[in-house]
Design brief:
By secondary structure, the chain is an alpha/beta fold. It has a single domain, classed as Glycosidases (TIM Barrel, Alpha-Beta Barrel). It has helices spanning 18-21, 34-39, 57-71, 82-85, 95-110, 126-129, 138-154, 167-175, 187-211, 233-256, 261-269, 285-289, 335-348, 375-393, 436-447, and strands at residues 11-15, 75-79, 114-120, 160-165, 217-222, 226-228, 295-299, 304-308, 314-317, 353-357, 398-404, 423-426, 431-434. Strands 1-2-3-4-5-7-10-11 form an 8-stranded parallel β-barrel, surrounded by 5 helices. Strands 6-8-9 form a 3-stranded mixed β-sheet. A two-stranded antiparallel ribbon has the order 12-13. It binds 5-hydroxymethyl-3,4-dihydroxypiperidine.
């Protein structure tokens, strides 16, 4: 056994999401999503593109499944497009949408691969946005109904459920920062949206468990370890602020049935909440949100080093030269994954944890011979898997790891310019080519451990 041998039960996976790979935006009864609308607005997406075709996975899923099989994966994490299932968000169910995911799930099971389904990876039906979207409490009822429809049909075959992917992105990037759909710039609305997303998680978890007793249900959070840039008290405070804004705002209600008092006070001080607190939190909401989880999914990409910027405001700073950043401008910092896992285990103690996303955008493409030598991505995965292994040694109940992503795909506001895939996609021809990192990952899975050597 090498020092990086994983437990026999460790689950190896890859992750994708519906809007980023499926395409077929107007087919088989799928309704419009907020991302279809957002992409149609000039200036929203870096390369002016959309997910209308993406990787055409809706038509090519059998070929993609064959690729998944060649990697030797134990699990495949995908998301279900709400607008395919209930095109108007509420009301009529589109059975063609359910049929698609049923075929995919059955195909995975035939191949001995566990289907890990995420109900919401950002593609809200536009019809619901027109009625207020996540800022409207009624959207939580619509989500619970959607969870009911999907879990009735697929509950006997899906191995594990995630209600939401990355509530911080849904709330903050979509409603405060405006970088994501629906593209709003309203902090008060973002906080209401965050609460309703969390509330709908709890409601959907109850529904799934009612339909499928014993079904593992969790949620996927994007989390970042935060630290001060210097020992100045102001920088320590900036790190505390970031932790409250990014991590504890979601972890505390889910695990401790309360919002973090310091972060709430900060929002009040900034005028984002009334002094009376959080008007959208109704009696019983926090108990619904905080019901026991079967697992927590953590998406880890980078750390946040924080300082006070001289005007009393926190800002994150990069600790490495630009050339050492991924194409997203994110620092490669594997130690942060271990720190984060140890901290979440210590402070929140989820019964099980999965790394549900981890990966890097690098543009490396085919050489003259058609081979994609993406050594930097291999080094990224190697470092992070070592950190994951150390966390297991530290006692963290980390039970699996999902690389982001199976394929190069539509990277939201960045369009197709950022490539996270283990598999290269030529968007002109839809040809798929395994990158060197895919071969490396396959070998790592086969060995159930990270080999010595570099990268
Ligand atoms: O592509 C995204 C994914 O949809 C959510 N987590 C982060 C990834 C990389 O930005």
């Amino acid at each position: 056994m090498t020092s990086t041998q994983f437990p026999d039960s460790f689950l190896w996976g890859v992750a994708t999401s519906a809007y980023q790979i499926e395409g077929a935006a107007g087919e088989d009864g799928r309704g419009e999503s907020i991302w279809d609308r957002f992409c149609s607005e000039p200036g929203r997406i870096a390369d002016g593109s959309s997910g209308a075709v993406a990787c055409d996975h809706y038509h090519r899923w059998r070929d993609d499944l064959a690729l998944i099989r060649t990697l030797g994966l134990g699990a495949y994490r995908f998301s279900i497009a709400w607008p395919r299932i209930i095109p108007q968000g509420t009301g009529a169910v589109n059975s063609a949408g359910l049929d698609f995911y049923e075929r995919l799930v059955d195909g995975l099971l035939e191949a001995g691969i566990q289907p890990f389904a995420t109900l919401y990876h950002w593609d809200l039906p536009q019809a619901l946005q027109d009625r207020g979207g996540w800022a409207a409490r009624a959207t939580t009822d619509a989500f619970a109904t959607y969870a009911d429809v999907v879990s009735r049909r697929l509950g006997d075959r899906v191995a594990s459920w995630a209600t939401h992917n990355e509530p911080w992105c849904i709330a903050h990037l979509g409603h405060e920062d405006g970088e994501h759909a629906p593209g709003l710039h309203d902090p008060a609305v973002a906080l209401a949206a965050a609460h309703h997303v969390l509330l709908s998680h709890g409601m959907a978890a109850r529904v799934i468990r009612g339909n499928v007793p014993g079904a593992p249900v969790g949620i996927v959070l994007n989390l970042t370890p935060t630290s001060p840039a210097t020992d100045r008290a102001e920088d320590h405070d900036a790190a505390r602020w970031m932790d409250g804004f990014f991590n504890r705002w979601y972890l505390d209600p889910l695990f401790h049935a309360k919002y973090p008092a310091d972060a709430v006070a900060d929002r009040v001080a900034r005028g984002h909440l009334p002094v009376s607190g959080m008007p959208f939190v109704k009696p019983g909401d926090l108990a619904t949100i905080a019901q026991p989880l079967d697992y927590l999914g953590i998406n880890y990409y980078a750390r946040a080093v924080m300082r006070e910027n001289g005007t009393g405001n926190p800002e994150s700073v990069s600790m490495v030269p630009k050339k050492e950043l991924t194409d997203m401008g994110w620092e490669v910092y594997p130690e942060g994954m271990r720190d984060l896992l140890v901290r979440v285990h210590r402070d929140y103690a989820p019964p099980r944890i999965y790394i549900t996303e981890n990966g890097a955008a690098y543009a490396d493409g085919p050489d003259a011979a058609g081979r994609i030598r993406d050594e930097r991505r291999i080094a990224f995965f190697r470092g992070h898997l070592r950190a994951a292994h150390q966390a297991i040694t530290d006692g963290v109940p980390l039970e699996g790891y999902f690389a982001w992503s199976l394929l190069d795909n539509f990277e939201w506001a960045q369009g197709y310019e950022k490539r996270f895939g283990l598999i290269w996609v030529d968007y002109e021809t839809q040809t798929r080519t395994l990158k060197d990192s895919a071969v490396w990952y396959r070998d790592t899975i086969a060995a159930n451990g990270v080999s010595a050597g570099s990268p």
